[in-house]
Design a protein that fits this description.
The protein is an alpha/beta fold and 410 residues long. Helices cover 33% and strands 14% of the residues. The strands form four sheets. Strands 1-9-8-5-4-2-3 form a seven-stranded mixed sheet, with helices on both faces. A hairpin with a 2-residue loop joins strand 6 and strand 7. Helix 4 crosses helix 7 and helix 9 crosses helix 12. It binds pyridoxal-5'-phosphate. The site of pyridoxal-5'-phosphate (PLP) has 14 residues, from helix 4 and helix 5.
């Protein structure tokens, strides 16, 4: 079975919440006129997430991608604006910027596989409006360093927490550092409702704008259609009550899931000890990371390739989804104000081109990196092999033995 940790612990709790909604008969997040059984699951999920993350506002959405779009719209980022985003991330971090008519500027990652703070300042131009650090593979970015750079240059920070729901940095949950942040409840994420997402912020104005963007411009928690009260043009990125029910049951399991992941990862790491020709990627907060994956960094790409072959996997460079070199939708294209258009827009100058191998440091690192699953079992992130959140000690030992054997054969 593939999937994220949340999908391995689906059970009675999710069933109970779902049944509650079905029995009540109101599937829309605001209830349905004439139906008394409205159960407020989306609103309850938002409340629970606020408490769990430690943040003032949450808007539940239909996906992480939709959440990123809300963040960008809330900040008013649009035509001609540049957003600095790492070249190792899921396409949505980049495409959400393009679809906001803004310009993604790709940045290098370091050996934490998150954006390298040392490489950010050289990318800042008069057009730069925001940095989008992505907490990749459950590992917090060096978020304090990023916040300092943003403050110095008066830039917004949008935290992409889609792969790190619940992780923390120096005792504070991710998503509470930047101006606004995006979360995903996709099936490969820490907790899941199949699809779904959330936006979080401490800023009242950003909350109102993000909410409006996700719900046709309406003010937060409307009841019915509030004509005359809509300030911005938005779209429909709402979460429904069925998704809300599962999300609610899952967020109540978040800390249990994180404890289990960290425990299993520690066990596997202890069994592996020091491997020949390999080390582990840098973790920016060992206690706070999600523990969804164990990433090995080999001394060379040749070692990484040979090792991967032995365990039936591939180095991150070839894992498909998450490396800019594999994003054919973006490569050899230009972004300006009409980024998604087949012709050039004369009103805006051509701004950026995206070329294979334009980020040599990132290429070098992802070429040597191999993911072992701990809780995210996903070929798409190169984690086709490893353990899952329910693996027994015996199963963990078997995986450790195979990894040791493969490393020893290099
Ligand atoms: C880093 C990152 N950002 C954004 C997204 C988009 O989330 P979703 O799939 O829920 O739209 C994902 C998930 O795939 C992701 O991994």
């Amino acid at each position: 079975m593939a999937g994220g940790p949340g999908s391995y612990v689906l059970g009675e709790e999710e069933k109970k919440e779902l049944l509650d909604v079905i029995e009540g008969g109101a599937l829309f997040r605001y209830g349905v006129p004439g139906i008394d059984g409205f159960k407020h699951k989306v609103a309850s999920f938002e409340e629970e997430m606020k408490k769990t993350i430690g943040i003032k506002h949450v808007v539940a959405t239909s996906s992480g991608t939709g959440s990123l779009l809300c963040c960008l719209a809330a900040l008013g980022i649009g035509a001609g604006d540049e957003v600095i985003v790492p070249g190792y991330t899921f396409i949505a971090s980049i495409s959400s910027v393009i679809l906001s008519n803004a310009i993604p500027v790709l940045a290098e990652v370091d050996d934490s596989l998150t954006i390298d703070p040392k490489k950010i300042e050289e990318l800042i131009t008069p057009q730069t409006r925001a940095i989008m650090p992505v907490h990749m593979l459950g590992n917090p970015c060096d978020i304090k360093a990023i916040m300092e750079i943003a403050k110095r240059h008066r830039l917004f920070v949008i935290e992409d927490c889609c792969q790190a729901f619940g992780a923390s940095y120096q005792g504070h949950r991710l998503g509470t550092f930047g101006d606004i942040s995006a979360f995903s409840l996709h099936v490969f994420k820490t907790i899941t409702a199949g699809d779904g997402g959330a936006v979080a912020t401490n800023d009242d104005m950003l909350y109102e704008r993000a909410f409006g963007f996700h719900d046709q411009g309406h003010k937060p928690s409307r009841m019915g259609v509030e004509v005359g009260n809509r300030s911005i043009v938005g779209m429909n990125l709402r979460m429904n009550e069925l998704t809300g029910a599962v999300s609610l049951a899952q967020i109540r399991k978040l800390d249990m899931i994180l404890d289990k992941l960290r425990e299993k990862k520690t066990k596997l790491k202890n069994m592996l000890g020091v491997l020949p020709h390999a080390s582990y990627r840098k973790i920016n907060d060992v206690k706070g990371e999600c523990g969804t994956l164990l990433t090995l960094l080999f001394d060379s790409s040749e070692y990484a390739e040979k090792f991967s072959e032995a365990i039936g996997s591939k180095p991150l460079a070839y894992s498909g989804w998450h490396v800019y070199n594999n994003m054919e939708q973006v490569l050899n294209k230009v972004t300006g104000a009409k980024a998604n258009c087949p012709y050039e827009c004369p009103r805006f100058p051509v701004k950026r081109e995206y070329k294979k191998h334009m980020l040599p440091q990132t290429d070098e690192i992802v070429g040597r990196a191999v993911n072992i699953s701990i809780g995210v079992v996903d070929k798409g992130v190169g984690a086709a092999y490893g353990i899952n959140i329910n693996s027994s000690d015996e199963e963990i030992k078997q995986v450790a033995d195979k990894i040791k054997e493969a490393a020893a054969s290099l």
